[in-house]
Amino acid sequence: MFRKLLFLLGLALALSGSAQAVEPVTVTLDVPGMNCGFCPITVRKALRGVPGVISASADLDSKTATVTYDPDRTNVEALTAATANAGYPSTLKVQP
Questions:
Q1: For 1-35, what is each residue's pLDDT tens digit?
Q2: Is residue 2 part of a domain?
Q3: Which residue of 19, 21, 36, 90 pairs with 83 in a disulfide if CB–CB is 3.0 to 4.6 A?
Q4: Does residue 6 sit within a domain?
Q5: Which domain holds residue 54?
Q6: Residue 67's domain is classified under what CATH number?
């Protein structure tokens, strides 16, 4: 009974805590090595496998990937490492 009470107390504290929800971040990566129809699929799968990634898409024509992620769980370095590990090195696209 005591364990159940502690669990419920912890749950109540977690739900009513003052933790602020962090806004997702969206970035675009340059992925110059994409050159066929299967490349974007591989890049997209690699990015979606990174914990904290909310969504990922890759575009062959622009040779870019767009990723939305939780900045509390991952970062650009982890994203570029994931694409590099899949055989497609990438860099953060600089927006003009």
A1: 545 544 544 555 555 544 567 899 999 999 999 99
A2: no
A3: 90
A4: no
A5: 22-92
A6: 3.30.70.100
How confident is the model at residue 20, as a pLDDT? 63
Flag whether 35 is in a domain.
yes
Q: Do 21 and 35 touch, CB atoms closer than 8 A?
A: no
The tens digit of pLDDT for each residue in 56-66 reads: 999 999 999 99
**Element spanning 15, H or E:** helix 2-16
Each residue's pLDDT tens digit, 43-96: 999 999 999 999 999 999 999 999 999 999 999 999 999 999 999 999 999 877
Looking at the 3D structure of the chain, how many domains does it have?
1
